[in-house]
Structure formats: C-alpha cells, structure tokens
Design brief:
The complex is a heterotrimer.
Chain A: H1 2-31, H2 37-42, H3 48-57, H4 64-76, H5 90-125, H6 130-144, H7 147-161, H8 186-193, H9 196-233, H10 236-243, H11 248-285, H12 290-299, H13 303-331
Helix pairs in contact in A: 1-13, 5-6, 5-9, 5-11, 5-13, 6-9, 7-9, 7-11, 8-9, 9-11, 11-12, 11-13, 12-13
Chain B: H1 4-12, E1 14-27, E2 30-43, E3 47-51, H2 58-65, E4 73-82, E5 85-86, H3 92-98, E6 103-106, H4 110-113, H5 120-131, H6 136-149, H7 155-159, H8 168-180, E7 186-190, H9 198-214, E8 219-224, H10 227-233, E9 236-241, E10 244-250, H11 251-256, H12 261-270, H13 274-282, E11 317-320, E12 323-325, H14 330-333
Parallel strand pairs in B: 3-8, 3-9, 6-7, 7-8
Antiparallel strand pairs in B: 1-2, 1-4, 4-5, 9-10, 10-12, 11-12
Chain C: H1 2-23, H2 26-48, H3 79-114, H4 118-131, H5 135-146, H6 150-178, H7 180-187, H8 192-204, H9 206-228, H10 240-252, H11 257-284
Helix pairs in contact in C: 2-3, 2-11, 3-4, 3-6, 3-9, 3-11, 4-6, 5-6, 6-8, 6-9, 9-10, 9-11, 10-11
The chains are: A mainly alpha, B alpha/beta, C mainly alpha.
C-alpha cells in the first residue's frame, strides 16, 4: 500500500510540469509554423490596414513569449480563445463534440480489447490450431490496411451492396433529433430519456464506425496477448506450479495476472494510434466529433481551434498514461517509480 | 538379486523405482536424446545422491520422475514405479495428488520458480491449499510454519516478501519450505545448493537435511555435481553420464574405490589430483546428444576401452550386492 | 587472390544459407518478394504503366476492362497506371522518412543509453512527453501549415519517428552494456569510445534493422491517411491515399474500382514489409523461430 501511495503521489506531482511542458510545446509548435493565419483568413489581396488591424486584434503582433503568457493566463481561466471558423469559443466547440468521439472510442476500444484478449488467450492455449492460424492471418491483414480504407469497405459492403446499414453520414438519420443532452452520448442519453427509436437509430449509425475501429485494432491486441501468454505458459514459474501440483485454476490465475502488464502497455500504445485513426474514421462517416473538427480546423488554418484541440488530445493522453502507469505499478511489485 | 528372501525385503523397501527412462527433445536442429535408458531405485530411509555433469539431464530427470517434461521434450520410454503404480501412465488428475503432495520437489533455479508478482508466503499457501481442503487462513498458517522451520531470518517478514526482495539463500529456503509444507513421502532435491555462496551452502543444506529427517520422509533423491555433499549426507550414490546410469552403489563402496573408469576419474579429480583432472579435461566434451555414438557412450574418453566397447553398449551389470556398473571391463577394473 | 577467393566463398555460403532460409518459410519469402516488387515499382512504375498516370482522358468512369485493367476515374485517369505509379511517391516517402529518422534517432539513442543514470533517463523522459502528442494529428497540422509538399511530408514523418528509434536503441544499449563481454572489453584496456563504437553499437543495431521495414509500412499508411484528408500529397500526383479519397464518394454510386484497388495495393505493400520484418527478426536472432 505504501508503495502504491508513493507511486500515485510521484506521478501526480509530475503532472504539473508535464502539462506545462506540453502546453509550451504545442503553443510554440503551432505558432512557429510557416504560413500566416491572418493572410489565410483575409486573403492575400486584402488592404494592408485590415491585415494589420486583424493582426493587432488577435494579438499576433506581440512578441511570441508574451503571446504565450497571455495564452496560459486565459487557459487557467478555461478560455481557449474563439474559433475563427465557427465564431464560438473553442472550449464550447470541444465540449459539443467530445462525447461523439468518446462514444466511438470507448465502444471501439472496448470491443477490441475484449475480443483481442479473449481470443489471444484461447489461441495461446492451442498453438498451431485452427483458431491460432486464423488469428495470425487476420492480424496481418488488419494491420496492413489503412483504417479509413477499412471504413470504406465496410460502407461498401454493408450499405451499398447488402443494404444493411443506414446511410453513413453522421450519428443519426436525417429525420431524427438528438435526445436531450445529459452526457452528449446518444446511446446513454436516449436510454435515460426513454426514446427507444432514437436509441435504435443512434445504435445503427454507431455500428459501422465502431466495427471499423475494432476490426482495425483487434489484430494487434490479439497478437500481443497471444505471444505474451505463450511466453508465460512456457516460463519457469508456471512449470514449477505444475511440478508441485498447483491446482490448474491457480495456474491459470497466475498466467493471466502476469500477462496484464504487457497488455496494459499495449493499450497505451494503441490509444495513441487510435486517436489518429479516429480522425480518419470520423471523416469517412461524417461523424461530427473531435476528429472531423480537427480536420476542418487544420484545413482552414484555425489556430485557436487547432491549439485547443491539441491541448485537449494531449492532456487526455497524458492522463491515460499516468493511470496506466499507476495500474502497472499496482500489479507489478518490481516496478519502482 | 539372487537371494529370494532378500529379494522380497528389498522390493518392499523400494520407494521410487525408475525403469529404463528415455527422453528426447526435438528441435529444428535435430533430436537430442537427453535420457537414455536410466534405471535405478531409491529405497526406504535412504538418501540417494545422483551425480551428473552439467547438462547430463538431472533437471529433466527430476521432472520426468513426476511425468512432467517441458516443450519440446518427449518421454519416449520407461516407467516410474511409485507405490506399485506407474507414474508415466497416470492421468493428469491422479498426478495432481502425487506431485507436490506425496513427492516433494526442490528445484534448482529458485528465483525463477517463484511468480514475481505474488508474495512468496501466498505462493506456499496456494500450494498447500491445492492439496488440502483448508481455509485460506489455515493455509497461510501452515505456510508460515514451514517458512519458520527452514531457519530463515525474520520469517514473518519473508512471508510477505516478493521474490525479487529475497537473496539467493532465502529464495532457496522458500523453495524448501514449499516442498516440505505438505510433508511428502519422497523428496527430490535438484541441485539444492547451486548458485549459493559457499558459506550459505552449508547452512541451507543442513537446514534442509534436518527438516527432511524431522518430517520423517521415506526417502530422498539428491541431485548434485558436488561429490563432497554426497560423501557427507548420502547413503547411496548413482553416477550418471549422457543420460545413463554408469555406476550405482553405496557411498562407502564408492569412496573406497569405484569400478567404472569415469567414476575413477571423477573421484580422482575431485580429490584435487591435478594431473588426473588435467587428463580428464583433455579428453573433450561429453558425447553429442544429437548424434550418440555406437556402443558405450563413454568410449571416446575412456582409457580402458577395448574392441567390444565400440560396438555393443554395455548394460548395467551387477558387481556385488547392491552394486551395479555399466562397463564391459568391470571385472578387470575392480 | 586468396583474400578475394575467401571473401567470395564466404559470400556464397551466406547466400546459400539465406536461400535455404527463405525456401522453408513461404510467408517470409512472400514478404521479401512483395517488398522487392514495390521497390521495383518505385523505380519503374510510371515507366511501365500503360497510360500516363497524370494525364486525363475522355474515358471517364469506365469499369475494369481489357483496355483499362482497373477502370478509370472521374477525370479519365487510368486507375491501374496510377496504382502502380503510386509507389514512387508512397514507398519513397516511407523509405526516406524512415532512413532520416534512423540517422537522427540512433546516435541520440546510443548517447542516451551510454550516459549513466539520471542523464540518460531524463532524455528518455523528455521524449516521453512527446509521446502524448497524437502522432497522426501532429503530422496533419505540421503538413497543413508547412505546406503540402512531398518534402514536408518526409520531414514531418522523420521527426515523428525519430523518438521511437531513440527509445529502441537506448534500451538495447542499456541491456547490451550489462553483458559481460563489455565488461571484459573495458578491463582489457579499451577506451570508452572504442568500447562504445566497436562493441556496443554493432550489437545494439539489431532491433533497428527489424523495426525499419515496419516503420516504412507505417509511414506509407500515414502518408495515405494524410492525403486522404487532403493534408498530404496533392492531386493529381498518383498516391494511394488521395486515390481512395477521390474514389470514396464514387463507391456509393457504384463505381467501386476507383477506391478499392489502391487500397488493396497499400494493404499488400504494407503486409509484405511486415512479413519481411518478421523474417529479419528470425534471421538476426537465431534463438527464435
């Protein structure tokens, strides 16, 4: 217990400098890029006065480090600036769209983890068997195809050819209205409001993108779980358990527990990859979440939106890494921090 | 085994008997025969010492005796008779009640045998609970008692420790505790002192021997490379080489003067007879397990060989009461 | 003369071993074969293509036929020619970007691995913060702001991949350093620099070699993704990702060939690279497989 407490304490202590470092990194990264956002907005032919005015208004004529200080001050108040494209505060834009992305991510990631780990464990129990070889084949395939292509194939098969899925544009059909907003996630909100038609509609629209996400990532999880389990099942301590007649149930428990740390590590890696993949999948399905938002922001040179989005995405990643670090420290007593 | 009467008593005194055990490992590089027809018997109240060079298959044998072999190994022949049943023909469910319960196992590599993520006391308790229908608390108490009995420092602290927090000697004692907590009938101790400092070796070995005699174990098989340990603790010695038994006799007889050429060299070099040790080393390595030679397996390094040694592998031949040698020249070498 | 003969004989022995190695592993041989095909296409793709990949024609939206094996798109561009010309962009970007990442990352990894204690791990921690930035999104931003050009895509991908190699090399150097033969090399009187260059470095490069084709594959997928959302290579340059994005809306109206074929090409290319990488892994580490 003492050890866990000290791990949690150290990691949390590190959050502040890490977030500061991240924010500086992101801020300067975005500001230092070539390309002038003012000119991008007004066009190259606007009169010089207008350009200067806008530049002054946006505070872009100040030295860079002063701009950073202003930005951090605003950040601490929760103000991420206003988006140029939507004319809304960035923080509102992000809040609006976050649930859509989270819904997609939780479901997709959750399915990938469950299916991947379960099948990985089973196929490690029968190496060389039919299930095992099929999963190896599937893993190779899924890892080599771009995620947006998988999404497109899904649309092609399930919507165009077989007509099973609804029109792949957005989270709900054209005729539906979203349920009253509590979490922003349509599945949960429609259940809370008792709107079963909306629930079915939202579910129908969720199936393809979630399936795309899961299909894409399950392979990697399967492969890693399988190889970790094989390694463990061949290890000295498992063999010792057999030599001294440990109950098979206990041996299984040992094996699963020891397989957790690498799987947790893999989840961390996958998450970072997932964030990028979500952007593309949201594009394919016109999802209206953060991914699509970021693409629009980038293509229209919306500095505030991009900076705000990167801050959010990175902070979520950082928090996840810390949680997983702590989980690892709890499970593996050899790790010190 | 000529005398009928003696035969009966001898038979009933056998606790564990290995008959013609052969095992091989098949890899991409070929098939390696690690055990080649090993036969020996351990009797009641005897401490049997099994001597073998590194790589002679001692650890494989330890597992095979309870019908356990690691991939990619295969037991191809033989029988292990324990309480009139052949363990090599038993099903997994029956074996579960023998392994760790009737036949205790002290393994060579103690650190890696322990699950790094579980406290060692809990691991011993798990073993205890696997064999006896008790509550978790009772199992933990039994485990703690077993740990205390090994003479380890701060047994209560050690109970809650993780494997990486233990020193080599402590880990060994934990393994000993784990083997003896169920009060087994027979104990197999594989290299119980390997990897330990010399000072610790003596302590650990003494603790182990004390416990074994306290628990009234019926018999022990001690596997080692160290002839000194055999001389000090064992009553019977079995010398193995290339997966076979070369000589099997009582410890007194052995240290008076063994018969087999290999054993003579062994004894001489362990007595720091420099020139003999040098000669022995000059002869090169043990036979290639992937490609065993015809005839006697020791032929390449033997000084006493004759023609037949290259053609016919010698069987285990009796030299005397309870003394067996695998050599065609046995009569000349006594 | 004898020296030459000796080297040659050694070469032949290695070659025979390699041929035997690949003969008994059909999947790995397939991977090697595919990788070589795409290298070939990277050089000669546009040359052997039946049509000019960037020249529009009047045959638009034709399904696959004798005349156009993979059909044509909305501007009459031949899909087959574009598909086999794309490696010159995609594969080259992947190769160059990964090479640059290795050239930048490996030295830093070696240095970080060598610096004892806190200095080395501080470098690692600094790079860890970089980990929080989702790579694809950063790539998207950087390329969009820096301007869509092949060079920019290469630089951005190299930057994003370098930390991976730093980490890889650092941890390998760390474990090689512990091994006994390094200790003996130092005891024998070798200077630290010599130990580092002559003994540690060659033994630490193995994971880099294995990771290399995997990374090229990842770079290709990322390039395709960037182009798909319009933040990568510009049309009408033949590039798999942008071809898929052009073809995506056409899927719904039934002209499936424009998007499907380039996707299959990406899949085969990346698959081949992955299989090749795993064969390298077995080759370089004789205890596996």
């Amino acid at each position: 217990m003492k050890r866990v407490a000290s791990v949690v304490f150290t990691r949390c202590l590190l959050i502040v400098p890490q977030v500061l470092g991240l924010s500086a990194l992101i801020f300067f990264l975005v500001r230092l890029l070539p390309g002038d956002p003012v000119i991008a907005r007004l066009g190259g032919h606007a009169p010089a006065l207008t350009i200067d005015n806008l530049r002054h208004q946006l505070g872009l004529d100040l030295p860079l480090h002063i701009q950073y200080i202003h930005y951090m001050k605003d950040l601490l108040r929760g103000d991420l600036g206003d988006s140029w494209t939507t004319a809304q505060p960035v923080i509102e834009d992000l809040k609006m769209r976050l649930p859509a992305t989270l819904e997609l991510m939780f479901l997709g990631m959750g399915i990938a983890l469950m299916v991947g780990v379960i099948i990985g464990v089973i196929s490690a129990g029968r190496p060389g068997g039919l299930l095992d070889r099929s999963t190896i084949f599937y893993t190779l395939l899924a890892g080599a195809l771009p995620e947006f292509y998988i999404g497109i194939i899904m649309v092609f098969l399930f919507y165009v050819v077989w007509g099973l899925a609804p029109h792949p544009a957005g989270r709900l059909g054209l005729a539906s209205l979203p349920p009253p907003r509590i979490t922003g996630m349509y599945l949960i909100d429609s259940v809370i409001a008792g709107q079963w038609d909306t629930f079915r509609d939202a579910l129908g629209h969720l199936i393809l993108p979630v399936f795309t996400l899961a299909f894409w990532q399950t392979g990697a999880i399967m492969k890693m779980t399988r190889s970790t389990m094989l390694q463990i099942l061949d290890s000295d301590f498992i063999n010792y358990g057999r030599l001294v007649g440990l109950k098979p149930a206990i041996i299984r428990r040992y094996a699963l527990r020891n397989a957790l740390p690498p799987i947790i590590g893999l989840t961390v890696t996958i998450f970072a990859v997932l964030l990028g993949g979500i952007v593309l999948i949201e594009q394919v399905f016109s999802w209206g979440g953060l991914g699509q938002y970021s693409v629009e922001a980038v293509t229209s040179s919306d500095y505030e939106a991009i900076t705000g989005f990167l801050m959010l995405a990175s902070t979520i990643s950082l928090l996840l890494f810390i949680m997983l670090d702590i989980a690892n420290a709890i499970i593996d007593p050899r790790l010190e921090l | 085994m000529m005398d009928g009467n003696n035969n009966d008593t001898l038979m009933s005194r056998k606790v564990l008997q290995a008959e013609n055990i052969s095992a091989e490992f098949t890899t991409r590089a070929g098939t390696s025969r690690v055990l080649n027809g090993m036969s020996f018997a351990c009797h009641r109240d005897e401490m049997v010492g099994l001597v073998g060079e590194s790589g002679s298959g001692k650890t494989v044998l330890a597992g095979v005796l309870v019908n356990n072999i690691r991939r990619p190994g295969r037991i191809v022949d033989g029988a292990v008779i324990y309480k009139s049943k052949n363990l090599l023909e038993m099903g997994e469910d029956d074996l579960l009640s023998i392994r760790g319960r009737e036949i205790g196992m002290i393994v060579a590599k103690s650190f890696t045998a322990l699950n790094p993520l579980v406290r060692v006391g809990d691991q011993i308790a798990n073993i205890y609970q696997s064999h006896f229908n008790v509550t978790k608390k009772e199992a933990e108490e039994a485990a703690l008692e077993a740990i205390k009995a090994t003479g380890i420092n701060d047994p209560v602290v050690r109970f809650r420790a993780y494997p990486h927090e233990l020193s080599g000697g402590m880990a060994k004692r934990i393994i000993i505790a784990a083997a003896l907590v169920t009060e087994p009938t027979f104990v197999i101790a594989d290299e119980p002192t390997s990897g330990l400092d010399v000072t610790i070796q003596a302590q650990v070995l003494d603790s182990m021997m004390e416990l074994i005699s306290e628990k009234k174990t019926s018999g022990t098989l001690l596997m080692t490379r160290d002839l000194g340990i055999i001389a000090q603790y064992c009553t019977q010695v079995i010398v193995t080489y290339a997966g076979q038994v070369l000589e099997d006799t009582s410890v007194e007889r052995f240290f008076q003067g063994p018969v087999h050429p290999y054993c003579k060299l062994l004894l001489a070099s362990s007595r720091l007879n420099q020139s003999v040790a040098h000669e022995y080393a000059q002869m090169g390595p043990p036979p290639d397990k992937f490609n065993l030679p015809r005839g006697c397996l020791f032929r390449e390094r033997c000084l006493a060989k004759v023609g037949i040694c290259g053609n016919e592998p010698p069987p285990l031949l009796q030299v005397d009461q309870g003394h067996y040698v695998r050599c065609w020249m046995k009569d000349e070498l006594i | 003369m004898n020296q030459v003969k000796r080297v040659f004989r050694g070469f032949r022995k290695e070659a025979t071993y390699l041929i035997g190695f690949y003969k008994e592993r059909p999947l790995s041989a397939f991977g090697l074969f595919i990788s070589m095909i795409f290298v070939f296409l990277a050089f000669l793709g546009p040359t052997i293509a039946p049509y000019n990949p960037e020249e529009a024609s009047a045959d638009f939206l034709e399904p696959p036929s004798q005349k156009h094996w993979f059909g044509t798109d909305r501007s009459g561009l031949d899909v087959f020619s574009r598909t086999i010309s794309a490696p010159r962009i995609d594969f080259t970007i992947g190769l160059v970007a990964t090479t640059l990442a290795v050239l930048a990352g490996v030295p830093m990894g070696v240095i970080a691995g060598f610096l004892p204690g806190w200095r080395g791990s501080t470098i690692s921690r600094a790079f860890d913060v970089l980990n929080c930035l989702p790579p694809f999104i950063v790539a998207m931003c950087l390329v969009a702001f820096a301007g869509q050009s092949i060079l920019n895509v290469i630089i951005v991908l190299a930057l994003l991949n370098a930390p991976l190699f730093v980490r890889l090399v650092r941890s390998k150097v760390h474990s090689v350093k512990q091994r006994k033969f390094i200790e003996s090399a130092t005891c024998l009187g070798n200077s630290q620099t010599r130990v580092m260059l002559h003994h540690v470095l060659p033994n630490s490069l193995e994971p880099v070699l294995v990771q290399f084709p995997v990374n090229v594959g990842w770079a290709i997928l990322t390039t395709a993704g960037l182009s798909f959302i319009g933040a990568g290579v510009r049309a009408p340059t033949p590039e798999w990702g942008s071809m898929i994005s052009i073809g995506a809306p056409l899927l719904i109206t039934g002209q499936w060939w424009v998007a499907i074929f380039p996707g299959i090409a990406v899949g085969i290319c990346v698959l081949g690279l992955a299989l090749f990488a795993s064969s390298l892994e077995i080759l370089l580490d004789p205890t596996r497989g």
